[in-house]
Task: structure prediction
Amino acid sequence: MSAVWNTKFGSRRVRRDPPTLKEAIIAAQGLTDQLLQQVEIAAALMDLPVEEVRAELLKSAPSRKAEQIVTSSGREKTVRTVVVERKVSRRVAAGAKLARG
Result:
């Protein structure tokens, strides 16, 4: 289909924006949790050098360490530690057929 076509409501255009490096990094993070593989995937998607992608990924990547929240109650002198960890969710797309076998 061409970039401009006519409909009964008038002419329509499709805006085509090339993907950004940030979008490629997000896509790579969705595929794997390993940093080196994320760099390689994003570099392959954008046809960029691995060093450039690695630098951008390290700038934008949040810390992978678990966050620790220390709380204390007013009455007791004990300190409780709550560890919050990231859990990857792999959801099946709506309408996708699952292979059974």
User: Anything to note?
Assistant: Helices lie at 21-31, 35-46, 50-60. The chain has one domain: 9-84. The chain has a mean pLDDT of 77.
